[in-house]
Amino acid sequence: MSENQNAQTGPVPSFYELPNVETTILPVAGGIPVGIERVTNSRLGIAGAYGGWGDSYDNATLPGFVSGRLGEPLAENEVMNLGELGFHHRMHIPDLTEEQHLELEVEVGARLLKEAVAANDWSPADVDGLLVGTSAPVSGDYLSQIARRAGLREDALKVSVHKACDGSMGALNLALNPALGVPGQVNVAEELAGKKVLVGGIEGLSRFTSHARDKNALQLFGNGMGVFGVVPGETMKLLAGKSHENYDDEGLLQVRMYYPHSKEMAPGKSMLEVSQEGSSLRVAGMMHEPEDGLPIVMAGLMGMVKLFVRTGVEVVTDAYREYRLMLEKLGQSGKNIDVIIAHHANYKINLLKAKQLLKEGIQFPMPWLLHDFGNVSAASCAIAFLRQLQEIKPGDHVLFDGFGAGTYYDVMAVSMG
Predict the structure, then answer these.
(1) Which among 91, 161, 318, 345 could bridge 54 via Cys, Cβ 3.0 to 4.6 Å?
(2) Cβ pair 407, 343 in contact under 8 A
(3) Is the pTM value of this prediction over 0.90?
(4) Angle at 142 between CA 140 and CA 145, to 5 degrees
(5) Burial of 294 (0-12, 13-18, 19+ CB in 10 A)
(6) Is residue 201 within 8 Å of residue 384, measured between CB atoms?
(7) Which of 179, 245, 163 shows the shortest CA–CA distance to 171?
(8) Residue ranges per domain, the chain?
(9) For residue range 325-370, what is the model confidence (pLDDT) as tens digits?
(10) Domain 15-416, what fold?
């Protein structure tokens, strides 16, 4: 990925202005806009839907919105250069009651699932599994609520993954990788192999950050959602995968856990806690929480580089080496990764990761695809994948690179179609 390959030089339209986006106004709090686009690649047998909700703020109007949330104006030196970080718009909602937040996010989530099901030419009853990454769910049973409203079967396996920005890739890894199974718990990949599965991320980050005091977080994050349909082992086959966790002792990215977790971390034990109730599973990740109860506190851009780049490069390198070994076993050593779908934390982080990987002799395309969303956490990779989907050919190899606060990393090399 070159310095200018993904730079955006001209004006960037808002997501709602794009030609294939269907928009409507939801009757919540005087009207909240929501937009969704369907994407289909019939050659691969993969399709899905993505979008966002709330008013779209560009980089010129965002400081006014943030100042309103803070109750004080942003100083000139506090306004981030978001354009050079790859972001030109964010979607935000006004302050709402708890009841309004719940109704809004259940409705947008259900609409997204319905659109993803329709894009795949499935019926809701066809769906056997739903795996969604959500950093701060609006309710403890959010996934069950949107599945029910979208018409999915009650016995469909529902897996909520709370690993911050890595949530959707953690979900995809669970769906594809039987090695992640834990004795005594349902092996998600074995359970869903050969079945119709929806995977993605839904992030109401405007709600989550509404009471934050961190001025960078208020400018970087916004609402977003994306879900795609796969048949594990058929339309998407795992070639190699890594899941890595490394506790953020320094608190470089502190995130409050709005989901059940014991908040205990025994030496040598996973930071993930898995609970099951009926057909619903929750994978909850331990976070370094802010001491003052605020939702999020960031150490700044250099802190994010320190947190994600070095370990992220190591995990991608390990997964890539495993991938090369698998290709040798398959007699396909001449094959390589065709594209990498990486979490869009910000453009500079991804650019630096690409440069560090190049030092390891690893080079593959890493397109920047979310100019009009901002950092949408666990929804990021799902949206990026759907935006790249129509360029992907049967037999292509795709590397998914997810990472998030905690810290968590999920990297998978897959064969498509």
Answers:
(1) 91
(2) no
(3) yes
(4) 125
(5) middle
(6) no
(7) 163
(8) 15-416
(9) 999 999 999 999 999 999 999 999 999 999 999 999 999 999 999 9
(10) Peroxisomal Thiolase; Chain A, domain 1 (3.40.47)
